[in-house]
Every structure is written in structure tokens, then in C-alpha cells.
Amino acid sequence: MVEQEGNRQDLGFGTRADTTSRLLNKDGSFNVRHINQGFWNRLNIYPRLITMPWLPFLGWIFAAYMVANTFFALIYVGVGVDNMMGAENTQVSAFWSSFFFSAQTLTTVGYGHLAPRGFLMSSIAAFESMLGLLSFALATGLLYARFSRPTPHIRFSKVAVFAPYLDVNGWMFRIINERSNQLIDVEIEVSYSRMVTKPDGSRSRQYSILKLERNKVAFFPNNWTLVHAITPDSPMHDCTEEQLMDSDAEFLILLRAIDDTFSQMVHLRYSYRCDEVVWGAKFRPMFNGDTRTMVTVDLNKLDEYDLVPLN
Amino acid sequence: MVEQEGNRQDLGFGTRADTTSRLLNKDGSFNVRHINQGFWNRLNIYPRLITMPWLPFLGWIFAAYMVANTFFALIYVGVGVDNMMGAENTQVSAFWSSFFFSAQTLTTVGYGHLAPRGFLMSSIAAFESMLGLLSFALATGLLYARFSRPTPHIRFSKVAVFAPYLDVNGWMFRIINERSNQLIDVEIEVSYSRMVTKPDGSRSRQYSILKLERNKVAFFPNNWTLVHAITPDSPMHDCTEEQLMDSDAEFLILLRAIDDTFSQMVHLRYSYRCDEVVWGAKFRPMFNGDTRTMVTVDLNKLDEYDLVPLN
Amino acid sequence: MVEQEGNRQDLGFGTRADTTSRLLNKDGSFNVRHINQGFWNRLNIYPRLITMPWLPFLGWIFAAYMVANTFFALIYVGVGVDNMMGAENTQVSAFWSSFFFSAQTLTTVGYGHLAPRGFLMSSIAAFESMLGLLSFALATGLLYARFSRPTPHIRFSKVAVFAPYLDVNGWMFRIINERSNQLIDVEIEVSYSRMVTKPDGSRSRQYSILKLERNKVAFFPNNWTLVHAITPDSPMHDCTEEQLMDSDAEFLILLRAIDDTFSQMVHLRYSYRCDEVVWGAKFRPMFNGDTRTMVTVDLNKLDEYDLVPLN
Amino acid sequence: MVEQEGNRQDLGFGTRADTTSRLLNKDGSFNVRHINQGFWNRLNIYPRLITMPWLPFLGWIFAAYMVANTFFALIYVGVGVDNMMGAENTQVSAFWSSFFFSAQTLTTVGYGHLAPRGFLMSSIAAFESMLGLLSFALATGLLYARFSRPTPHIRFSKVAVFAPYLDVNGWMFRIINERSNQLIDVEIEVSYSRMVTKPDGSRSRQYSILKLERNKVAFFPNNWTLVHAITPDSPMHDCTEEQLMDSDAEFLILLRAIDDTFSQMVHLRYSYRCDEVVWGAKFRPMFNGDTRTMVTVDLNKLDEYDLVPLN
């Protein structure tokens, strides 16, 4: 029994995950909720700032800039704008003079038509300018991190298919690199997960790694069709479409590769639920025109397939 | 004999480590003191600045800023503030005028209501502004390094347990990812270390790698209970609680994983001493509510267990 | 049949790639065209800015600087230069005053002889100075990324050769590290690709990994000659120069290494087409002078060979 | 014969390296000279700036700063300081006024007591301030790269020893981590290189990997003594001190590890020449005081050994 346990292949989800909803969302996140996380862990600031889309990111930066300036403007007003040289010529209210002075200090542009006078005003300005440097440093780090974070742009075919393959059938899906920068040493692991009813009637989720016709390529210039041949030793052998649906089956995919531009590891998760598998279908070749001259791949054909009888 | 030696599994501590105190501290540092380190090696500036908490870090930066400004202020005073245009209008003493001028130079805010006059003053200011750029550059690097340093937020159960496992017993502990950013390819190595008395009466520390029910998972969305089954070939076979305590046993854990957000390797060390192992206890499931709809994990339940009879 | 498929060694090109032009260009890019890429994917900004040569890169930065300043200059002119203190003394037109003011704001140099007056002008300037910081931050990140990107400077011999090797013949090429920074754990994979005519007359591309006399070295201080011995089990056994040319043969090379200066993985692709293979030629040693005192390698000799009879 | 070749273990030096001087210098660089490198490859700017000591590095930066300012100063003088507002009050010559103005522009401190007047002067200043940003960005990148570059501070014992080991003898050396930041998964490869005289009288260098009692540790908190047992299958079996000297033997060491602070790979090369091996010596333990309370390692003892008779 101990030995058997050793062969479990649940990829880390655990047999308890007897949920009927999908385990892995389309965006690669897990369909799991954590409660009672610590405050900072739930906040998780840095990773969020790195992974959020550009618009909200720039929005946050602008907001922070406005808040900081307002905050310091109020302080300067409190100290008194009579301690600010040139405030009389700005043709704007005391608050806005302070606001713009703050902006000029924070960004270290420091025109000087506004300048601090007296100890208090000068100290606050000196402090703010230091904050300016640090926040700037921060922005630099964040922008760099956002850019340099390796994100593979791999598109998966909308559906997986059951297709005749050689003298048997095969479960297939295919992927393509949407970007021009190359991925090398691309490696793929597919796990087949489904609910099984134990003799005692209780249901639990089982997992098995699907053996792929090939699970690693050194280069990935074209599209790549991944094939699991339904041989007698396949966990899907003799499995019908109905059984697949009944068992809440889900195909979990983990992709590992190396981005050639930055020589960094990249990872991608994806999954196909049983209702995203087409039975008796064959992907159309994605090559376009005469491949003799130059191989041309049409990304729009990724999801195209023809219905065919199975073996 | 040479062959035997080849099979040593001390993870790198060496048999000499016959200390009665724990080998590995809770924070993952080693309970080892190095003496006669070189000055710079003991100082170890950069790693310290990177790993120290945020408050002291910012404190150091602020301190450096104050020191630098004071230093240059004194120089400017020495040169004479009559070489500083506008010093007469600042309404503060010569020193503070110089101090604020230094601050405005170091941060390159350079309002200009204070400006250098004459060769000496101008050269020093020119030099300081260059230092300003460099220190700023430094701050940028440090901030970025602090943020981008991958630190896994994995919580270990407070105690390990001896629990019935299948038809035998097992030594178990469990972990959970406190953060939302995913870890993948999580791999764990556990080494069982204890003092043994040789026939000649001398005591020395022995180590053995504990075979785990599974030592690697591709995904880590939920909690993970690691199990070492006490099979006849286990070094802990027939070991009683008393023997465990007498032998100063310690369980050393090395965790390797890949942070999915930054695609970086992360490492974690942890250890359980014999007095942190509960005999005849079983971890409570961490799942919360109805798992059929969505898997919900309650982090507060990580340390919860029930006492149970052993096989 | 399924088993056979499992042994395919096409490195990821796929058997469909029945093109007569080379698969891998000299610069390591693939001879594949993708159509219908998404806009951003085709643009692929960041990797481009990182990989483009220095001159165009600096050109783009300068262009961006000019465009931004012109853009803001027009806005300032619109707002009216009478809202800009000092504009009357610049001795240039309103546009150029605005242009230079914009430049001084964007770079945060902010002399102050030009300064904003009134709410509108001040706000725009405050906004531009923030943009200045961000763009600066961006430039920092880009420059750093460009520099720190590990690019191996390995030169491949212009041609590969068929040379006598021990008691048989061998297919050989050689490489040298042009730079002084060391590469370690250099690993090479060579795949032999050619068109074969199936019994049914259809032609398809076949691939086989070439077994190398050695495919990995820990150090790489000198030149390295890679040798595939034409033993009976070699896919090139009994292959004549004519057959090689007829089959559109191409030798695809993938090099993996670790740059010792930055401890980063580096990768390189290269290929030799059949017409770049010299039959019956032997590389000249690259050592120079008396190697007893110090090993001296002459990079100019990399491509030199002598014609020799084959075994 | 082809098979034999396959077993060569020269780590990448090649058998041609029949030099009598050491292959690997103490600093880990190779004793190899490359001639006819391309200009940029010989210059190899970036890696140099990263790896050079701090003092020269800062020297170069300061020099660049001076040169740039002088260069622009001359241009400004050429344009005429009458186009520079405030130049009349600086109390220094036209050149120095321009020099300091350049400095204030390059560092973007821009006090403004000096400011450009007229189109030409303004454009040049605008251009210089852009250069300022870029050079600053560059400095940031360089400083960060210098700091974050992982450099293991591992000290090797000055000499290797031949010591009795269990029931045979062993060749040993030992290492210690000088820093406090941990290295994990430390892996070591030792290659034994010596000149051998072929039957035909010609001498060539041979290499063999030395099997180590253990070549990898997960943790490295203490010192680590690496042992190659002289068993009958060892290439050093029956080798006497004289033979070792005659054969110009050298022990080449490659260390791989992972720096735990930054989770980065680190590498180190080292070598012992035959004249750095002491016959019949045993390293003294490095532990200090009572190890029962806490393990204390004394770095000064690294090189200490006692002479002992061999088995």
C-alpha cells in the first residue's frame, strides 16, 4: 500500500480536491481560495505592481504623485507660504503654490522661482527631495522589473481533439509562439485528472501523467502539436466521451521553457476541461502557401480542425 | 570502508557537529559561529542591506543623507558662505545655509536661490552633485534588489507528528504557501540527524535522508503534507519517543522551488527538533466549507491536529 | 509505429518543414515567417529595444526626446509664453523658449531662468517633470538590460569539414570564445537534417541527433573542435558528398553554456548547410609559437584547413 | 579507438596544452593568451567595468565626468559665454564658468545662476542634459550589476595534502565559506592533469576526473574537507611524490553552488600544482573550544596541518 501511494501523480492538487469546477483557470491561476492570510501576504504589493496591466500601474503611480504633492502642499501651507520665496509671483493660491513647489522638489526639477526660506521650510524641502530620489529609484526598479519579467506569449488551441493517430487514436492539442523572440528547450507535462467512484461509493479525484509522443523540443519556431497516443497502457484507454464528461475530467498542462532573448526560465499553466475536447477531429495544418520557398505559419489557423472518423 | 564513507548523508554538517543545541535555527540560519573572518567578509555590507528589514534600511539611508550633508556643510562653512550667492536671504545660520545647499546639490534639486560662487565653492558643489548621482544610482540598485529578491513565504506547521499512515505509521509535517504568487516544481529533502553512541562509547552525529511518500510537486496551490512512512527500511523504524529525545534528533529540511512570478529559484531551510514532534497525532484537514463549489484553504488550521492511536 | 514516432529527433522543426532553403539563418534566427500575429506581438517592443544595435537604439532615444519636447513645446505655446517667466530674455522665439523649457523640465535640470507662471502652465510642467522621471527610469532599465543581457561571443569556423579521424572519418567543426570572460559547462547538440524520398515518392525532412566525440566541456579556454565520428551506426555512414547535396542536408547546432562573469545561461544557434562542408580537409592547429611557455591561441587561424585524403 | 576517445576527461583544455606552466591561475583565470581578437572583444568593456576593483572603477567614472565637462566647457567657450546668463557673477574665468555650467547640466542640478541664452547655447545644454540622464542611467546599471554580481567568497587551503584515509591514503584539500551568506547545493569537480610520455617519446597532457568521497553537499555551514581516496582504481594509485613532480601534475577544481541570498548560481575555479601538495600531512580540525554548546569554526586554522606517516 505504501508503495502504491508513492506512485500518486496528482501534480500537487491532492486527492481532496473533489471540486466539480475547474482546477486551473484559463489564465493559469488555480481555482483555490486562501482565507486568513496575513495582511501583507494578502496585499502582496510588489508582485501585484509587477503583474498588473500597464494602465492601472501608471494610474497608481500618478495617484501616488498627486497624493504626495497634496500631502506636502498642506504641510507647506501650514508652515506658511511667506516662507517661500517667489510665492507672490506664481499668480496662484497659496495651496497651489505649495503644491507645485512640492512637485518641483519631489521630481528634483527645482526651477527655483519657488524656493524655501527659513529653517523649517528648508528642512521639509530637503526631506522631500530625498523622498523624491527614493521614489524615483523605486519607479525605476518597478518599470525595469515589469519589462524584464519573462512572459511567454504562447497560444493554446481553443480545444483539444480526439483524432486518429497512426494505427490508434490520440488526444491532441497544439500551441504556437505568438512572439518573435525564441523559446528553446520547451518542455511540457500533461496530467489527466478525473473523479472516480470508489467501491464504497465515495468519490475522489485521481490523476495520471499522460505519456506524450514527445514532451520536449530544443527549438520551437513553428506550431507544435502535442499527442498522447491512446495505447492500451494509457489511462484514457477505452474511455468514451460520456465517461469523460461524467468524470469531470480535466487536462492540466505545465509548460517550461527558456526565453532566448533573456536566457530566463519561463513557465505557463493551462488546462482543458472535458467539455473543451472535440471527439473525432483533426487539426488543419497551419502552414501557408508554398512551404518550399519559406515556411510560413498562419496563427489564425491555430484553432481550425476538420471532423474525421476515429480508428 | 571507503565505500561506506561514500554513503554518508550528512547534508554537509559533518559528523563532528556533536552539538546538543539545534543545528538549524527557525529562521533557516545555521547554528554555527565563524571566528577570525576578514573585516569585509564579516561586514558583508551588500547582502545585509538587502536582507535587513525595511525600517532599519530606510533609517540607514536617512542617516547617510544627514551625515553626507553635515560633512559637506562643514566644508562649505570652511570655504566661507560669502562664496554662496543668496546665503544672505535664507534667514538661517551659515551652517544651515550650507547644509541645505548641500542637500539641494546632493539630490540635484538645485533651486538656485543658493548657488556657488568662485572656483573652490563651485568645484566642491560640482563634485558633490556627481556623488549625488552615484548615491542615487546606488539607492536605486538597492531598492530594486530588495524588492526583486525572491523570498518564498512558506509556513511550516509548528510541529511535526507521528501519525498512523496507511497500514503503518508515518512521520509528517505540512506546509502552505502564504502568498498568492505561485511556486512550482517544489522539491523537499529531509534529513534525519541524531547522536549515536559508538561501541567505544564516543558519541557522534549521524545523518540519513528520509524517503518521502513524495518529495516533489509541480503545483503547490493547497497545503502539502509531507509523509515519511516508517517502513522496515526507515532509519526511524522501531524508534520510540524516548530514544528520539535521548538521541538529540533533529529533522533538517531543505526546500527548493521556482517562484512563478519572477521565474527564479527560491530556497528555504527549516528544522524540527525531537521536542517539536507530537506522537500519535493527526493533522486536521485545512479545507473549509463545501469543497465541491470551490476549494477553500484556511491558513489558521495549519497547526491543528487531533490525538490518535498509532498502528 | 507509435513507438517509432517516439524516437523522432526533429528538434522541433517538424517533418513538414520540407523547405529547400536553410532552416536556420547564420544569425541564429529561424527561417520561418509568422503571419496574422497580434499587433503587440508583432511589435514586440521591449525585446527589440534590447536586441537592436546601439546606434539605432540611441537614435530612437534621441528621437523620443525630440518628439516629447516638441509635443510639450506646442502645448506651452498654446497656453501662452506670457505664462512663462523669463521667456522674454531667452532671445529665441516663443516656440523654442517652450521647447527648451520642456527639455529642462523633462530632464529635471530646471535652471529656473524659465519657470511656469499660473495654474495651467504650472500643472503641465508638474506633469511633464513626472513623465521625465518615468522616462528616465525607463532609460535606466533599458540600458541596464542591454548591458547585462548575456550574449556569448563564440565564433564558428566558416566551414565544417570531413576529415580522417582515428581509424575512420569524422564530420568536424570548431569554435572559439572571442571574448575574455569565460564560458563554463559548454554543451553542444548537433542535429543532422536532410530530405528523404519515401517509397511513395513524397519527400519529407528527416532529423537525427549526431553523436559527438564529446558534447560537453567544463572549461572552454582554447578552441574546441567538435567531432562526429562516422561509425557504422552514424546516420551519415556511407553518405557521399553528392548524396549530402541532393538531400539538402543541414547541420543544426544548439550551444548551451554558462557565462562565468554573470553566472547566467547563454544560448547560441548555428547551422552548416551541405554546401558549407568541405570534404577531405583537416583544421590547422590554432596554437601559436611555443606552447611550452604559455598556450597562445590565434583567432585568425580558426577557419584555416589543409586538404587531406580521407580514410 | 573511437570509443576510447569518447572517455577523454580533459575538462576542455585539450591534449595539446603541453605547457609546463600552470593551466589555471590562482585567481581562477586560465593561463591562455588569445591573439588577434577583434577590437571590441579585446576591449570587452562591460565585463571589465563590472569585475574591476572599486577604486579604479570609481576612478574611471570620475575621469569620464571630468572629460565630459571639459569637452562641453570648450564648446560653450566656443559659442561664447556672453550667451550664458550669470557668467559675469561667477568670479571665475570663462572656461571654468562653462565647466561648472556643464557639470550643473550633466548632473541636472541646474542651479540656474548660470543659464543658457540664445538658440545655440540652449540646444547644446538641452542635449547635454539628455546625455546626463543617460550616463546617470548607465552608472545606475553598472553599480547595480557590480553589487548584485554573485561572487562566492570561498577560501581554499593553501596546500592539498596526502594523508592516511581510513585503511588507505587520500588526496585532500579543504574549503570554507568566508562570508555569512549561505551557499547551498555546493558541487565540486576535480580533474587530475599530468604530462605523460608516449611510447614514441612524445609527451602529451592527460586528464582524469578524480572520484571524491563526496562531491556535493546540500548545506555548507562549516569547513569541508574534500577527499579522493587512493584506491586501486584511482589514477594516482602507486604514484610517488617524485612521479607527481616529474609529470607536471596539476589538480583542477571547479566549484558550483547556489548563493542563498540571491538564489543565483556561482562558480569558482582553483588549482593545486604538484608543488602545492604536502605528502604525509593531516589537516588540523578547525573547530574551536567546546563544540557541545555551539559549533565554532576558526578560519585561521584552514591551512594548518600536522605531518603524519602514510599507510
From TrEMBL, chains A, B, C, D:
Gene3D superfamilies: 1.10.287.70, G protein-activated inward rectifier potassium channel 1. The keyword DNA damage does not apply. Its main location: membrane. This is Potassium transporter. It is a multi-pass membrane protein. It is found in: Membrane. Residues 68-144 form the Potassium channel domain. The keyword Lipid biosynthesis does not apply. GO terms for cellular component: monoatomic ion channel complex; plasma membrane. Keywords: Ion channel, Ion transport, Membrane, Potassium, Potassium transport, Transmembrane, Transmembrane helix, Transport, Voltage-gated channel. One of its GO terms (biological process) is regulation of monoatomic ion transmembrane transport. The chain crosses the membrane at residues 57-81, 93-114, 120-145. InterPro entries: Ig_E-set, IRK_C, K_chnl_dom, K_chnl_inward-rec_Kir, K_chnl_inward-rec_Kir_cyto. Residues 154-308 form the Inward rectifier potassium channel C-terminal domain. GO terms for molecular function: inward rectifier potassium channel activity. Signal peptide: none annotated.
